[in-house]
Amino acid sequence: MSAAAAVAALVGAAVAAGPRAPVRSDPRGPGPAPARPRRARRRRPPPDEDLLVGARLAERVAALLRAGLTPAQAWRYAEDAPAAGDAGDGALGAGAGARPGPAPSAPEGVRAVWRLVERTGAPAAEALEQCAAAAWAEADARAALRAATAGARVSARTVSLLPLAGLALGAALGAPPWEALLGTGAGRACALAGTALLLGGRWWSARLVRAATAVGGS
């Protein structure tokens, strides 16, 4: 192959490949690899979520009312639900679809307080502040009650597992207890009595905890 033919082949290959975009080197080095999207984990809602949401909503609306907003503006801004016909400029003017009250999805306690305000003419900001304070206090009382009854729940579960642990320990030591419990009449009577006492203790402990939580309003 002649030199002219080799040069022509190289030029043809360059033209066929086309122009390439210039590659800029990053002085900071290669960036990290994009993280793979993780599946959203289902989180259990807090036990007093309704109370906490209502307390925060009542506090926001009360603050907006004290700042001089109308009830329609305050509720719309606090719930972050502007009317569909609003322009995207962030204005708080009451549009045609304005609702001077809480949304149907708002907590029942907040909606009840607002109905009372509309019927009696009570000061709206003060009533909502009292509603928020009562909701916070009830949430704190429920949390304290759950903490106080946690020990009883754990104790009941632990005591319920002790007979099973005893059976497992006897089997591990080479003396299977079920031979005595199931092989003789006295053993079967003891097994039935023990099972009845175990179930009765679990039921009684659960009843005491339910009674305590019912008195506390949980």
Q: What are the main properties of this structure?
A:
rod-shaped, 218 residues
Q: Care to count the β-strands?
A: 0
Strand composition percent: under 5%
What does the largest sheet look like? Answer: none
Radius of gyration, whole Å: 36 Å
Briefly note the structural class of the backbone.
mainly alpha
Shape: rod-shaped
Overall mean pLDDT stands at 73
Low-confidence sequence ranges: 1-33, 81-97
Layout of secondary structure:
Elements: H1 3-17, H2 49-66, H3 71-79, H4 108-120, H5 124-172, H6 177-183, H7 185-216
Helix pairs in contact: 2-3, 2-5, 4-5, 5-7, 6-7
Task: Describe this structure as you would to a colleague.
With 218 residues, the protein is mostly helical. 66% of the residues lie in helices and 0% in strands. The longest helix is centred in the C-terminal third of the chain and has 49 residues, at 124-172. It is rod-shaped. The termini are far apart. 11% of the residues are buried. The model is unreliable at 1-33 and 81-97 (pLDDT under 50).
Write a brief caption for the model.
The protein has helices at residues 3-17, 49-66, 71-79, 108-120, 124-172, 177-183, 185-216. The chain has 218 residues and is mainly alpha-helical. It is rod-shaped and about 80 Å long.
